[in-house]
Amino acid sequence: MFRRSGSVVTWFVDGQVPDPRSESFAEALQNHRFRTIENAASEESSVGWVSSGDPTGETFESEALDLDHAVWLRMRIDQKKLPATWVAIHRAEAERSAGRKLSARERRDLKQSLMDSLLPRVLPSVRLIDALYAPSSGLVMLFGTAKSVREEFHKLFFRTFAANLVEADAYGLATRVGLDRDALSYLDEVAPVKWPQDGTRRGPAGNEPIEIDVTDAVELTENDA
Question: What pTM was estimated for this model as a whole?
Answer without folding.
Answer: 0.71
